[in-house]
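Hey, quick one: can you model this chain's 3D structure?
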Amino acid sequence: MADASAPRRKRLSLLGSTGSIGEQTLAVAGAAPERFEVVALGAGRNIEKLADQVRRFRPGLVSVADEKGAAELRERVGSQPFELRVGDAGLVAVAEHPADLVVSGLVGAVGLAPTLAAIRAGRDIALANKEVMVMAGALVLREVKAHGVALLPVDSEHSAIFQALCGQRIEDVARLILTASGGPFRTWSTDQIAEATIEQALKHPNWDMGPKITIDSATLMNKGLEVIEARWLFDIAPQRVDVVVHPQSIIHSLVEFVDTSVLAQLGLPDMRVPIAVALAYPERIALDLPVLDLPALGRMDFETPDHKRFPCLNLAYEALRADEAAPAVLNAANEIAVAAFLAGRIRFPEIAATNGAVLNSHVGRGGRAALRDLADVMEADAWSRACAREWIASSYGSAA
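Sure thing. Here's the predicted structure for all 400 residues.
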């Protein structure tokens, strides 16, 4: 007989279940089955991995990219019952499925529509898909306030700020200070960076992430996107968001208050920690992970970011100074440029050059672009992608 006094398990819907964040989210949830129930999974084309997840967690709803994947999933899973949806509409169905928390773990612009759908359905959001706030921060913030949902950050830096701000007033904050590892090229010269290979760029010193995010870390665009995300997540002016390079990645971010006090959140670099914070909030759950040994660590270092070697960071601040659509433009251009680099079509420094050229073209179009709805966001996104492809083809002789 069930214990009537036991708390009801928190129902989780997961967008991006077969990606890095998705797998780690399921690892946290799977280690505490008395706390969490996975009710819906949204994935793409990794059907083999998704089938394993469906068999283990038995969700009621599953989404895949296309009908071919749907047929393969049915074949792999067999007679196990669940509703199956496909495509963008399938991701929206997962987002709107009855749940206590939607984990938005997709990578890139594909996560925007389902995350907005989840907010409008009244679902609390654990947000790991930073592009959602980068592309449409003003719009998302308005929707969150209108529907009264919680927006819980999963990025380690924003989770650190969120934890440091608990019990504090945003009016008392002087600065949010995001920490950056510096990526694999932190100590490289400009000439060395110019010759960086794909393999070298994918060797992050501290974190195990997907290829796109890892390249963003190497260019510091990842940190630029996080500056934009922080501006909207915490509804704070861009000039009050700073970045410091901290190569050990032990301090995940800091909050400086008007009385000069600084609160920081520390821990070994492991994404399961910020994921667990978001899943269990406002409680904490025990994790079977190594603990931080400060004497063994010995020291922590801090540096000012080098904006000349890593110009992508400046581009983020420029986008915030431009208009509401400019961050979406910058994000889309970066997705095209990173894909072109990973495909061997452009060199590493040409990622930043492409991003800057597209952002300048957007600003040169004139006007102050406000985001009224999702259509405005997607128009800016589509324009930017076309512009980036044209720039790469004309400047580097390569189709993106």
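One thing worth noting: The two ends are 60 Å apart (CA to CA).
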